Protein 1
Amino acid sequence: MKKIGFIGLGIMGMPMAKNLLKANYEIIAYDIVTEALKKIEAEGATKAASISEVAKAADTIITMLPNSPQVEEVVLGEGGVAENAKPGTLVIDMSSIAPLASQKVASELKLKGIRMIDAPVSGGEPKAIDGTLSIMCGGESEDFTEAKPILDCLGASAVLVGKNGAGNTTKLANQVIVAANIAAVAEAFALAKKAGVDPQLVFDAIKGGLAGSTVMNAKAPMMLEGNTKPGFKIDLHIKDLNNVMETGQAVESPLPLTEQTLAMMKKLHHQGEGQSDHSALALYYEELAGIKIRPGGN
Ligand code: NAD
């Protein structure tokens, strides 16, 4: 069985690495946080002292890092994966990063004979724990086929959507839809409240119709409870929408809805809500409209 290097043991990476251990993969892991390394070692992984140690030992390397700068540093930086991995190694970057950064990393690795697929995920921590993530992949089909048994331990579906960068473009599309959908739900609930109709009853009445969605089912109850505990943090969504804007500019695709929603999220960030769930967009509308969406709130 392949020896897997795993770099980035945060909210998502930790349960994903645990699922690979459960599937009997041998794991050599690295994170800058010592606590995380101790935790995964206790689960049966080998703890590495550096990225180079992981890169030299593994046949396949998974990265689950915050954003493009961290992936570029870990993979292309001094002492990183590109300098130390054997030719033929397969890198699976599962972080949500800018598609253009993904393409850059893949093409630099190719110069060293190292293969890469971008494989960002959707589903959040609960699905990372259950191993039921949705995984969207970009790269060569033979590399995707090689990665598939590993991805199947982490997700309920893994779909190859195109060449390098296409996985992250798909993730950005996902994040555009989720952000606009949450904002629309908050805007509609504020309108109903101002017009004297209970938003809870609006939700009950419309959730089975055309406006209903997975996003509405997950986020409307949080708005109605005034619950902002994350899920998916405003700050992470800002990171993704910044990547959307950068990509939109590069390919000349207009993004008026995303631009507006990003501005709302940035305002919430400056009000100290960056670590709140993205459904806290409801707070933006509550302030703007001078009402509370939750029942009993005025
Ligand atoms: P996180 O911040 O919890 O974890 C990132 C980990 O990377 C941390 O443990 C950090 O110490 C480590 N790290 C950072 N720089 C490093 C470096 N130079 N070398 C080694 N390790 C380093 O983030 P997360 O929530 O696990 O998210 C990871 C990625 O998955 C992000 O791109 C995020 O957008 C995406 N994602 C997150 C969720 C979610 O619900 N949390 C859902 C889908 C996708």
Protein 2
Amino acid sequence: MNNKVIIFSAPSGAGKSTIVNHILSLHPEIEFSISATSRAPRGEEKHGVEYYFFTADEFRQMIAEEKFVEHEEVYPGSFYGTLKSEVERIWAKGHVIIFDIDVQGGVNLKRIFGDQALSVFIQAPSVEVLRQRLVGRGTDTQEAIERRVAKAQSEMEFAAGKFDHVLVNDDLATAYAEVEKVVNDFLSDSASL
Ligand code: 5GP
């Protein structure tokens, strides 16, 4: 069976979801891993689509029952994690799993899945560009932007050398071409089957 996984991690503002969605649009055999979270749904988000939503108590209970492959308190009070049942659900269909996950979670998943995994770190071209993107988004206060930029800086330092591939997301067309090649090479590499 084709038990492969592709992991995408990035600091916020680096363009991770755009790249993950691009890959999903090209590969019907790749399926998005729906994470569990204890944060509240945003906007139109629905249970079982973007996330499986739980209360913090339910989440802690599931941690105690060892239902997670990995889990993190990504922001204070907000838990996120990959359920073992989600991995089994996708592999049972013969699909390859794609993860959109924070940097620490990405490193943990790579450690768990080893050669079955391709891990890609998406990097904004520079801290200054990242700051400009967050300003351009217009959804964060100045203070929140500085907090996110500082977090991104430490994540970039932490990530160095821990991922199979680092993708610098400067020009989107170039990033798409590069990520398509890395993913295709990984999918056609029978050594890791
Ligand atoms: P958001 O709340 O904006 O949807 O996600 C916040 C962060 O949590 C993002 O960096 C996202 O990639 C990360 N995240 C989503 N699912 C998981 C998960 O299952 N495990 C971990 N460790 N992080 C996750």
Protein 3
Amino acid sequence: MYLYNSATRKKELFVPNHPDIVKMYTCGPTVYHFAHIGNLRSYIMEDILDRYLRYAGYNLKRVMNITDVGHLTSDADEGEDKMLKGAKREHKSVMEIAKFYTDAFFSDCAKLNIRTPDVVEPATNCIDEYIKIISKLMDTGYAYFAGGNVYFDTSKLERYFVFNDFNAEDLDVGVREGVDEDTNKRNRNDFVLWFTKSKFEDQALKWDSPWGVGYPGWHIECSGISMKHLGEDLDIHCGGIDNAFPHHTNEIAQSESYLGHKWCNYWMHVLHLNTNDGKMSKSKGEFLTVSLLEQKGYDPLAYRFFCLQSHYRKALVFSWENLDNAQLAYNKLIARIAALKPEDGQLDEAAFLSMKDKFCKALDSDLNTSLAVTALYDVLKVPTNDFTKLYAIADFDKVLSLGLIEKAAKKREELKKQAVVAGEFTIVSESGESDAEIEAKIRARQDAKKAKNFAEADRIRDELKAAGVELTDIPHGVKWKKG
Ligand code: AMP
Ligand code: ZN
């Protein structure tokens, strides 16, 4: 398998460090708010890597942190504390916020068929690990104490910028966020390992340390948690592209200075999901969450499908229109799979292996999911029996995780007992009853959607809702029930 390694800026053959295990670390969410679908693009693509490594036979151990302390609004350790900000916003304690949004994150992941990593570790669980690392960095002169904080001294490194495909503007994180630079720093890129009470008097969570009562910086979390569970080396580290600098650069600086040797071999960064007017945000414009997609009638797996249609190393633009197209294509795909007959024939091994070969070649080439999706469509065209096609689809879906077999089986069942079939569009009621007036409105809503008149479609949905009728979009149609 070839993976693009952003540390070397080359596609490289993936060779694990150890014969019996692959060690992978993923930067987890900061649990001060819901994840937006941009964050979830990163987790979906990392999930594909996770699943494909297992599919290819590797014994994978994957660790992810939950950032519940230390992440400030600027990644350059300046600005407000994100968790504190969330707690104030909702008049709750920091731990209540952390619990609520951690649960919300995993609930979103479940809806998107994102596997939970083998180890999920909240940052607040590993204070001793950070203190151990920081103490050694202080002893060996890589860290210094100034103005109440412990900083990593980047001037002690021979080489600091590992992911140096960034321009000067990208490196100005602190300045860009509109916050003052920290005058305690000896060098512009020095970063905080440990904050003490001198900063954020109202900090909720604090621990004793050799440098005073305080809390860890954001970057040290990932080094500490990774070493706690995966030891002194790592095969793959992943995250969104904004994590590359300064977060991952700083992780490398402190980990390698602490260990005295190379830490991680492959770095995988997922490019951003953007909106038409730029960066996705939790505070400006529409806050795009999985729940919002569901409220608007989309299947979260149609969003997963949308993500898989493009390569993780290309920025992706989100628009409702793009998602409509993905939902439509996803529904059609399910309908085509539902039309296959499970009882048709026996496994045609030669045909299966040739389809699988194409699928694996796509993913072996730096996780080319759009080609893997093409390989999936090709299955529908191969001249073999339906049993073999369904067998191949089920096999590929171990990696793609689009719920294809389950959804197609459900669709087959629904088609059997469907109440009304009008052209390509299916309307079913949960109770099995039919109602001409409701069905007419649902069809009018569908027509409005087709004409991209979403305001009208939403109006009809609201009108039905007010009358006690709930709509759920299903593959190729709508299901309704009286509330
Ligand atoms: P956070 O919760 O802010 O720490 O971010 C969680 C993950 O989402 C990190 O890996 C980020 O790099 C990633 N991320 C943030 N914004 C986006 C975006 N617009 N598109 C894709 N990934 C993102
Ligand atoms: Zn991290």
